[in-house]
Specification:
Elements (H helix, E strand, L loop, with lengths): L1 H60 L6 H8 L15 E3 L4 H8 L6 E3 L2 H14 L6 E3 L17 E3 H4 E3 L4 H7 L3 E4 L2 H8 L5 E3 L5 E3 L3 E3 L9 H238 L3 H17 L2 H18 L3 H15 L5 H16 L7 H20 L15 H15 L6 H63 L3 E6 L10 E6 L6 E2 L5 H18 L4 E5 L7 H14 L4 E5 L3 H5 L3 E9 L2 E8 L2
Parallel strand pairs: 2-3, 6-7, 13-14
Antiparallel strand pairs: 1-5, 4-6, 7-8, 8-9, 10-11, 11-12, 15-16
Helix pairs in contact: 1-8, 3-8, 8-9, 8-13, 8-15, 9-15, 12-14, 15-16, 15-17
Length: 795
């Protein structure tokens, strides 16, 4: 119980510490979020200041507000003219007096500070060569002494020299030009002082008096002046530095708060872990107490159960004592009964042994009697089987005698039928021989047709390449014709089957019967057959032992055709039958078989196949003519298209070249350019070279131009193509990025000239380009990560 209370106290303490740490962590997170919001605000202000500073610096670098000549001379790194910047670069004006000083000095601020008069002359020549307007120079040479300050004609006037600080080695020359220039506190003071002197007097609003007769003033433009831009850049740099310092400080504080929050979170996790351990310990104590309570209850129940069991055991012991006494009495009684039973058992066993011996004697006698009886039964069965065999043999002899008589009668009948069948087979054989001769003539005709087809297809292959496919098909079909040679073997098989079906005998058996007939009644061989057999025998002897190949088969077919031709034309031959040796039937059958084998396969479909091949040849010829006509029509169409393409290309090339010359001169402010065909004889395959001559340079290829000149040339070519075939819309994405202020002006003028026919959509960062737009769309980011679209209608 004491351990449980201690654990509960430790758990409560851990929970309190965890709550305190959690509150501290929440406070740190709130403070960190506040610092983060403040940092985001500072970063946003810093981004605005940086953007403003960058824009002003870009304007300062681009010499915005300067004349074209001064801007070109100050921004051109390859002008070759020594200078120390503009007069404005050497001046530091008191805050608030920039407008008055700038109005008082006027164009002097844009004057280029040069060492010598020769540098000024070179600068003037450079500006004239580029045609960018006027420019002024402040020559340092000869300005050796400090000029004495002029006396004020009025106490209300302040000398410009007094409010302007001049830095650098050129301070003497610059300060000399600031003499006799005054600043008044108000317009009335300036008017009163102008009546006393002809020196320039400027008011705080920028009005300038040149004596009593000349007064100038007003607003020069929407933007800041040169000195105001310089002063704002200085202020923005200071503010940016201060804002950056503040951002760095806030970043450091946020980092410290992150570290403190991390430490607090680590401590909180440790306290939570400790709290979890205390809760586990508390739960363990509670479970241990519950287990002890359960053990105590279980022990009480066990104690009651043991008492109950003890009472039951005592009762069982008493009952067992009574049963033991009864059992002892029963044992005495059972021992006496067992002695009586043993005596009776011994007597019974003796009687059983005697009965077993008597049964064994009787069993031996019964077995001997069964054996004798079985022998007698077996002898009776043998005698009965012998009687049945004798009876069956007698019946079989009677049946065989009757069958022999029937066979003898059938043999006589079959002999007569066989003689008649042999005569019919002989006639059929003669008819088959005649049919074979007709088949050989058909084969010759089919071979001639095949040869003609092969010749036709070979000629067609020489004329049209497509016919080669047909020739391959014809060869395949000829191969199929060769497969028909198996037909002769089929005929032989048919003859054998005819013998079996008609005579119920094989061909060899028929040959044997013919031999018997020849011996009995004689047989006259066919002399014509014998002559062919002799010819075939000679051929066989020449070709014996040689495997037939394709050439042999062709030669063999030729010989068979000649034999068939001899059979049809030389029927009246003067062959002497007595000169031919007599032949047996076996020899004649063998000769006939040899002739059948020599005939080869007979294709009964040769005429139909020839018709199919002829039809296919006509089809391929028609296809060939169609292809030739299609090729001719395609060639005519290509020629027509090439002719039209050349005409249109020449028309477009001439028009685009004329537009290109105009747009090039407009964008460059002079010069000339043109497009040249590399191969005028082949317009469709010729390349195009671009020749350009900017003002003041020689005529050369576009590859030799500078980067800016290449960009202007490409722009001129693009506008030339666009003028040839204008479109209602044109999208230009930062096309004016590589152009300087002078070229931007000419680019803008070209857009103005073309906007009557085309609506231009430009993506640009140049203010001059934006000035000609009718509507502006801008994307701003008022909050970090959130962009906003703004549109302005200008016209």
């Amino acid at each position: 119980r004491a351990a449980e209370q201690a654990t509960r106290a430790a758990l409560e303490e851990a929970r309190n510490a965890c709550a305190n740490r959690n509150a501290e962590l929440s406070s740190l997170r709130i403070e960190r979020e506040s610092r983060a919001r403040e940092l985001r605000g500072q970063e946003h202000r810093l981004a605005e200041l940086t953007g403003r500073l960058t824009s002003l610096r870009d304007l300062q670098v681009a010499r915005t507000g300067y004349s074209d000549g001064a801007r070109l001379l100050l921004s051109a790194p390859d002008s070759g003219i020594r200078h120390w910047g503009a007069v404005a670069d050497h001046l530091e004006v008191e805050p608030g007096r920039e407008k008055a000083v700038e109005a008082c000095l006027g164009d002097l601020l844009q004057y280029v500070v040069v060492p010598t008069r020769a540098d000024a002359e070179a600068g003037l020549a450079f500006v004239r060569r580029h045609g960018t307007g006027r420019v002024g120079f402040l020559i340092v040479e000869g300005q050796n002494g400090e000029a004495s300050p002029a006396n004020s004609v009025d106490e209300a006037l302040v000398s410009v020299v007094g409010v302007v600080r001049v830095d650098g080695d050129q301070a003497i020359a610059v300060r000399a030009e600031l003499q006799d220039r005054w600043l008044a506190g108000s317009y009335d003071d300036a008017a009163r002082a102008a009546a006393q002197t002809t020196a320039e007097i400027a008011t705080p609003d920028g009005d300038v008096f040149h004596g009593t007769a000349l007064v100038s003033g007003g607003v020069k433009g929407e933007g800041l002046g040169i000195l105001e831009t310089k002063r704002e850049i200085t202020e923005l740099e200071q503010r940016t530095a201060a804002e950056q310092t503040l951002v760095h400080r806030l970043t450091g504080e946020i980092g410290e708060l992150d570290v403190a929050a991390q430490r607090a979170e680590t401590a909180l996790n440790e306290l939570r872990l400790e709290q979890h351990q205390q809760e586990k310990a508390m739960l363990g104590h509670e479970m241990q107490l519950a287990s002890l309570d359960e053990e105590e209850a279980r022990l009480g129940q066990k104690r009651d159960l043991v008492a109950t069991e003890r009472r039951s055991v005592d009762e069982e012991l008493a009952a067992l004592e009574v049963r033991r006494t009864e059992a002892q009495a029963s044992i005495v009684r059972l021992e006496e009964e067992q002695r009586d039973a043993d005596e009776r058992l011994i007597a019974s066993q003796r009687r059983v042994m005697e009965a077993r011996e008597s049964i064994e004697h009787l069993s031996r006698d019964a077995a001997e009697a069964k054996a004798a009886h079985a022998g007698l039964i077996e002898r009776a069965s043998g005698l009965e089987a012998s009687a049945r065999r004798l009876e069956l043999a007698s019946q079989e002899l009677a049946t065989r005698f009757t069958s022999r008589q029937s066979d003898h009668a059938r043999t006589r009948t079959g002999r007569d039928a066989l003689i008649a069948a042999v005569a019919a087979s002989t006639q059929q054989l003669d008819a088959d021989v005649t049919g074979l001769s007709a088949l050989r003539r058909d084969v010759l005709k089919a071979d001639d047709a095949v040869q003609r087809l092969r010749t036709d297809f070979e000629n067609a292959e020489a004329e049209v390449r497509v016919a080669r496919v047909a020739q391959e098909e014809v060869r395949d079909e000829v191969s199929e014709l060769d497969l028909g040679r198996a037909g002769a073997e089929g005929n032989l098989t048919h003859l054998e089957e005819t013998c079996r079906d008609t005579l119920k005998l094989t061909l060899d058996e028929v040959t044997l019967h013919l031999a018997e007939l020849q011996r009995d009644r004689g047989f006259d061989p066919d002399n014509e057959l014998l002559s062919h057999a002799a010819t075939l025998a000679v051929t066989d002897g020449a070709d014996e032992g040689k495997e037939p190949d394709e050439d042999d088969e062709v030669a063999l077919t030729g010989r068979i055709d000649e034999e068939c031709h001899d059979d049809t034309t030389d029927a009246g031959s003067d062959l002497d039958p007595s000169a031919v040796a007599p032949m047996t039937v076996e020899q004649m059958v063998s000769a006939l078989r040899a002739k059948i084998d020599r005939l080869g396969p007979v294709n009964m479909m040769a005429i139909e196949e020839f018709d199919d091949l002829d039809e296919r040849y006509d089809f391929l010829t028609t296809q060939r003519l169609d292809l030739e006509e299609s090729i001719k029509a395609t060639g005519d169409a290509i020629s027509r298209m090439n002719r039209t393409t050349r005409e249109r290309f020449r028309e477009a090339f001439t028009a685009i070249n004329a537009h290109f010359q105009t747009t090039f001169a407009t964008l460059f402010g002079g010069g000339r350019a043109g497009l040249v065909l590399l191969d005028e004889t082949d317009l469709l395959e010729s390349g195009i070279d671009i020749i350009a001559q900017p003002p003041g340079k020689r005529l050369q290829s576009i590859q030799l131009l500078s980067g800016g000149e290449k960009a202007l040339t490409a722009m001129a070519l693009m506008f030339a193509i666009f003028k040839y075939k204008p479109s209602p819309f044109c999208l230009l994405d930062e096309i004016d990025a590589p152009l300087d202020e002078a070229n931007i002006g000419r680019f803008v003028e070209m857009l103005r000239a073309m906007q009557s026919d085309t609506q231009f959509i430009l993506v640009t960062h140049n203010r001059k380009t934006m000035e000609i737009a009718d509507r502006l769309y801008g994307v701003t980011m008022e909050e970090p990560g959130v962009s906003k679209l703004i549109s302005v209608q200008l016209a």
